[in-house]
Amino acid sequence: MVKYNRGLDATFQALADPTRRAIVSALARGQASVSQLARPHRMSLPAVMKHLRVLERAGLVTQRKLGRTRRCRLAARPLKRAEAWIAQYRAFWETQFDSLDRYLAQNPKEEPKWPKSK
Amino acid sequence: MVKYNRGLDATFQALADPTRRAIVSALARGQASVSQLARPHRMSLPAVMKHLRVLERAGLVTQRKLGRTRRCRLAARPLKRAEAWIAQYRAFWETQFDSLDRYLAQNPKEEPKWPKSK
């Protein structure tokens, strides 16, 4: 986990923006040119290219020249690592939701309070 | 997905820092006071409290007063949502790794090149 810290910083930073997440979603469906990526957002090409640079620095997107256009594609590894980092805590959130369910089942008319510590 | 966009912005932003991720890890093991959280990082209390405020704004941490100390605890929901967002692309990265494995099996002496589009 530790050795990917710098990568995780850049990955989570890149994903902390709805346009960049939409670009990730679009590229998960297949490679695209910068203008294809810009179209649904009604953004200028320079604005989209700025977002693409953030995604590239995080290793989430790679670009290559094909004739006169640049094709962008999504890279799998940073997404997989980010998901693996969060998924470590799946046991935690499943336990927390179970505790809340139990509490609500036992106290159906009360407002939920701070659940007990594990 | 869309209705959680603002929440996802804040969650990913909060996770884009190694100290805040370490706080999340510590709190997944149980509630802690601010000074308990500060200890392993050799940071001043104000510095840790600044990170805690970012985590609180993202809904990842809640605090309550217990006597003279403040206890922090991790909230499950934002972590679960962030994991769910990334996990949508699991099929994408699994396909990409499979393609790379196939390519390397067929071309064992070559350097991997840009894999084919799906």
Question: What does this entry look like structurally?
Answer:
The structure is a homodimer of 118-residue chains. Helix content of chain A is 58%, strand content 12%. Chain A has helices at residues 5-15, 18-28, 34-38, 45-57, 76-87, 90-106, and strands spanning 32-33, 61-66, 69-74. The model of chain A has no long low-confidence stretch (mean pLDDT 85). In chain A, strands 1-3-2 form a 3-stranded antiparallel β-sheet. In chain A, α1 runs antiparallel to α4 (45-57) and α1 (5-15) packs across α5 (76-87). With 118 residues, chain A is mainly alpha-helical. Chain A starts with a helix and ends in a 12-residue tail after the last helix.
Order of helix and strand elements from N to C terminus of chain A? HHEHHEEHH
Q: Could you give the distance between the termini of chain A?
A: 24 Å
Give the count of helical stretches of chain A. Answer: 6
Number of strands of chain A: 3
The protein's oligomeric status is homodimer
Q: Main β-sheet of chain A, in a few words?
A: 3 strands, antiparallel
Structural class of chain A: mainly alpha
The greatest interface between two protein chains, and residues involved on each side, is: A-B, 41 and 41 residues
Mean pLDDT of chain A: 85
Taking pLDDT < 50 over at least 5 consecutive residues as the criterion, the unreliable ranges of chain A are none
Q: What topology, given as strand order, has the largest sheet of chain A?
A: 1-3-2
Principal-axes geometry of chain A comes out as elongated
What percentage of residues of chain A falls in helices of 4 or more residues? 55-70%
Query: DSSP strand (E) fraction of chain A?
Result: 5-15%
Q: Give the radius of gyration of chain A.
A: 20 Å
